[in-house]
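Sanity check

After download, print the first record. It should look like this:
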Amino acid sequence: MFIKIVEILGKLICLYAYIISVISSSENVRKLNRAFQDLKEGRYRVR
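Expected structure tokens:
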């Protein structure tokens, strides 16, 4: 049980760091917003 919690925390930290690195450059903000819109519409694309 404890190991699963550590794995989830690790994934969250990696995701958080990735989001910060993406937001740090304003050009990627548009890509991020577009990706969120695609996610809302049910289309998940990785560019």
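If your output differs, re-run the checksum step. Summary of this record's structure: Residues 2-40 form one domain.
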